[in-house]
Amino acid sequence: MKLFYSDTFELPLPEGHRFPMAKYGRLRERVLAAAWSGACQLELPPAATDTELLQVHCPEYLRRVTQGELSVLEQKRIGFPWSEKMVERCRRSTGASIVASQAALPDRVAVNMAGGTHHAMPDAGSGYCVFNDVAVAARVLQGQWSVERVLFIDLDVHQGNGTAAVTAADPTLFSFSMHGDNNFPFRKTPSDLDVALPDGTSDDDYLAALQTALSK
Known about the structure:
Layout: E1 2-4, H1 23-33, E2 41-43, H2 50-53, H3 59-67, H4 72-78, H5 84-107, E3 110-112, H6 133-144, E4 150-154, H7 161-167, E5 173-180, E6 193-197, H8 203-215
Parallel strand pairs: 1-2, 1-3, 4-5, 5-6
Helix pairs in contact: 5-6
């Protein structure tokens, strides 16, 4: 099984910053220490190209991200300051989802260990998400690998509003998000299927809700 990592491009964040960027490096260390790691192939992904990113994101937004022209408010909404390393890291994370998806076609499974940037809209970033890696990967698969339909199963505690925006009114992309009802984003973009769970949901209730949703 192929696993793709981009933690070597982690961002230098101000002291006391809330987002634990080091978690991705620690995840790779745990994987390497696992007894089953010998069955895995860890690879550094390529950076997503402009051509790939433009299949989801607006040209003007991509230009301003690349050139460092995001406003202070836009950077605040994303959650970390702009830097060239930030752009490279986000391109690599998106590239990881692209090559993991491509590897999964013949291998049936592959992993991006630092993806899931589901709050990124076509024209804006939010919630530590600059580019929507899973949406870009889906578009690349459709354009280059003759994939017809893609299902997104999003089990983050936060609703996948960016992915929902990308997939809206597109019958070839289906977005399913199961998330905490009282959690970010507080203005949610409707997915094709949303399951909002109350605070304190038990493991059994969670798994039952997931099974019911998947059966649909």
